[in-house]
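Lecture notes, part 5. Sequence design as translation. It can be helpful to think of inverse folding as translation between two languages: the language of shapes and the language of residues. The source text, in structure tokens, appears below.
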């Protein structure tokens, strides 16, 4: 199949999966490919290309030189067709690997389209883009399609089928995203992205494009947190203990490092969960230590998004005290 045929098949695939949020529906896409004139051999090739785990096994090698196989817990996310997806993960679970695989796959399967990989900081962008470039150069089936590559003023790769890959830092207040118009956005270490940067990158996605967001919670109720609560986003959570090499010794070491399994650091970086809000002006525990337990009281806790009123089953009292602990 040439790039024009692949581009036509991409359109058929996207049209077929517009209503789906997860895995590619072959039963829906294949008839549409046949209607567009694809024979059985071309449809079989298309299956092997659009099934990203099959593409990975057939074209990419791991560090040991063997066909790269996807871990079971990674499969649902890798095969996702969601236009909006957010990852709240622990450390060392394969987020970077998925981004690397998606960039390699898109260089073949997304002709005449543009993808942006974005981070807030250079120390996040450089190792990620370096891995992607090395993967492409080390894979004969990919490097033969590469026609242009540069690192400065930003990472840029252009392929013979018209696919373009950008790697950019946010820059001051997201200025580096201004003037960009791409079909696919991948934001890594999204918990570090500033609100100003979000304001620019959200405008840089073409209509009908995809936005996939990856981050490790840090306790802040920032743009990444709000995105992870958005019902329009497909949500994934990969705790660190899903890694095949994670064991009790590693878990005990991390628990000691972060101050226990209930500590914010463990909840964020191991479990990949937001946990309680961090960086309040006053710690909730310190406030509760000032409450006289000898008095008759009923504690009411309101979470974000709850109605600001006492539950119906709470009796009226002479005194009420509410507390907003603020944010630093």
């Amino acid at each position: 199949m040439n790039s024009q045929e692949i581009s036509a098949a991409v359109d058929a695939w996207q049209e077929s999966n517009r209503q789906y949020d997860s895995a590619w529906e072959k039963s829906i896409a294949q008839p549409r490919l046949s209607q567009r004139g694809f024979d059985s051999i071309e449809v079989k090739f298309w299956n092997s290309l659009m099934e990203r785990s099959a593409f990975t096994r057939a074209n990419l090698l791991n560090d040991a030189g063997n066909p790269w196989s996807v871990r079971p817990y990674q499969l649902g996310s890798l095969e996702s067709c969601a236009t909006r997806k957010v990852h709240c993960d622990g450390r060392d679970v394969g987020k970077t690997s998925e981004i690397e695989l998606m960039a390699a796959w898109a260089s073949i399967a997304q002709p005449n389209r543009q993808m942006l990989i974005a981070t807030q900081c250079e120390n996040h962008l450089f190792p990620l883009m370096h891995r992607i470039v090395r993967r492409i150069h080390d894979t004969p089936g990919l490097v033969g399609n590469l026609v242009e590559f540069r690192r400065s003023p930003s990472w840029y790769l252009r392929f013979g089928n018209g696919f373009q890959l950008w790697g950019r830092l946010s820059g001051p207040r997201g200025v580096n995203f201004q003037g960009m118009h791409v079909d696919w956005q991948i934001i890594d270490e999204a918990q570090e992205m500033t609100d100003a940067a979000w304001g620019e990158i959200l405008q840089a996605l073409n209509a009908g494009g995809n936005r996939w967001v990856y981050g490790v919670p840090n306790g802040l109720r920032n743009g990444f947190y709000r995105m992870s609560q958005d019902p329009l986003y497909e949500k994934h959570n990969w705790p660190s203990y899903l890694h095949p090499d994670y064991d009790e010794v590693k878990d005990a070491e991390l628990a000691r490092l972060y101050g226990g399994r209930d500590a914010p650091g463990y909840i964020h970086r191991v479990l990949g969960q937001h946990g309680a809000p961090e960086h309040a002006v006053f710690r909730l525990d310190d406030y509760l230590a000032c409450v006289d337990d000898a008095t008759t009281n009923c504690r009411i806790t309101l979470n974000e998004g709850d109605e600001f009123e006492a539950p119906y089953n709470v009796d009226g009292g002479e005194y009420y005290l509410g507390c907003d602990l603020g944010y630093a």
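The translated text above is only one of many valid answers, since several sequences can fold into similar shapes. The first helix runs from residue 3 to 17.
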